UniProtKB/TrEMBL annotation:
Pfam families: ADH_N, ADH_zinc_N
CDD domains with a match to the protein in the record: enoyl_reductase_like (cd08249)
UniProt name for this protein: GroES-like protein
InterPro entries: ADH-like_C, ADH-like_N, ER, GroES-like_sf, NAD(P)-bd_dom_sf, Trans-enoyl_RdTase-like
MF terms (GO), sorted A to Z: oxidoreductase activity, acting on NAD(P)H
Signal peptide annotation: none
Length: 357
């Protein structure tokens, strides 16, 4: 395998600007880097918001995308953990301090070997590409024990003593059908949480139960109705609530469901008054941050990546269902529009960048 000098990539040209697929150089690997031929890239919930709202990214043009899977084609100096030909998953490079991104919406990704991991042969590139951000968001926000980590700080099920540790404790996951909600349900199962109560559209019930949800409540029920059902099902106060949606439709409910001194995990901006209201009752609100390369996540990321191939191989963690969008990188913009319009249900949208015209 050889690395070409140029490739196609999907650029967001300017803040709230236009998307364009165009030719750009393939970056040379620095020390510790690998170059991956990207066979599948998955769409996330944040990319359309960056374009529509002008948030998070400060430097343009930029290449977005946090989920990728492909084949290693070149090794930078000093890389010994991978060989050319290895099948891997990886996250796009997103630096939240500088507001820069070099993402997965391209054909050849160059980035640190530290944040990539080999995948079992039994898992397709498309399925694998649904894993990096979703797994990290759920795992880091529930289990990162670093002092200042935005996390509920439970003991991870892949660490000694963690498996089944929370048997008999209830958990609520609002929005189980989201990509990282599906992974949160599976980690909750590995941790022993029970019951695992989630919300979504009822046509996703079987899917969510296949991951380990014990009860699926219709997201269309009123907050009062959901609270009453959760109280009845859980039997005891719920100390951990994971709000995988975190919009006005779910945040008040998430806080109301959480026991005093319990933990609420949110995944996007939460109004100060809601946080203050929760804090009055001693509830801790943690803003999930599912990026491997952010330093606070390095240690938990290292232990997770060491175990992830095995978790995937034996089916302890199952990838999201996926749907391939036609047209390679040209298919991304239409997919993001569907996500913005709430027209994606229980499935991760994936493109094959090598199919780009
Ligand atoms: N902070 C972080 O590190 C981080 C990381 C990843 C994602 N996020 C954020 O997390 C959110 C979800 O992203 P995603 O890409 O994983 O998911 P997604 O694919 O955008 O989620 C779509 C799913 O959300 C469910 N949903 C929507 N509104 C709901 C509600 N009111 N109650 C229950 N379920 C609801 C729908 O379920 P049904 O189809 O069953 O109705 C749908 O299947 C986005 O806002 C994203 O930006 C944050």
């Amino acid at each position: 395998m050889s690395t070409p000098s140029h490739q196609k990539a999907l650029f967001l040209e300017a803040k709230q600007g236009r998307w364009a697929v165009r030719t750009t150089e393939v970056r040379k690997p620095g020390p510790g880097d690998i170059v991956v031929k990207v066979e599948a890239a998955a769409l996330g919930g944040v990319e359309w918001k960056i374009q529509a709202w002008g948030i998070l990214i400060k430097q343009y043009p930029t290449i977005l995308g946090l989920d990728g899977a492909g084949t290693v084609v070149e090794l930078g100096e000093g890389v010994t953990t991978f060989a050319v030909g290895d099948r891997v998953i990886f996250q796009g490079k997103w630096d939240t301090i500088t507001g820069t991104s070099y993402g997965t919406f391209l054909q050849y990704f160059t980035g640190s070997a530290q944040f990539a991991v080999k995948i079992p042969d039994s898992i397709s590139f498309e399925a694998a590409s649904t894993v990096p951000l979703g797994v990290a968001t759920a795992a880091f926000s529930i289990y990162n024990q670093a002092d200042s980590a935005p996390s509920a700080k439970y003991l991870a099920p892949w660490l000694p003593g963690g498996r089944g540790k929370y048997a008999g404790k209830p958990i609520v996951i609002l929005g189980g059908p989201t990509s990282h909600g599906q992974y949160a349900i599976q980690f909750a199962r590995l941790s022993g949480f029970s019951p695992i109560i989630t919300t979504g559209s009822l046509h996703n019930t079987d899917l969510l139960k296949s991951f380990g949800a014990t009860h699926v409540l219709d997201r269309k029920l009123s907050d009062e109705e959901i609270k009453s059902q959760v109280t009845q099902i859980a039997g005891v106060p719920v100390e951990l609530v994971y709000d995988a949606v975190s919009t006005a439709a779910t945040l008040p409910l998430a806080l109301a469901l959480t026991a005093p001194r319990g933990n609420v995990i949110v995944v996007q901006f939460t109004p100060e008054e809601l946080i203050a209201q929760g804090q009055k009752d001693g509830k801790a609100v943690h803003m999930a941050h599912g990026v491997f390369r952010t330093p606070i996540n390095h240690e938990i990321g290292r232990t997770l990546l060491a175990k992830l191939p095995e978790l995937l191989e034996i089916g302890d963690i199952k990838p999201n269902r996926w749907e391939v969008l036609p047209g390679g990188l040209n298919g991304i913009v239409g997919g993001l529009e569907r996500m913005e319009n709430d027209q994606v249900s229980g499935v991760k949208l994936v493109v094959r960048p090598q199919e780009t015209d």
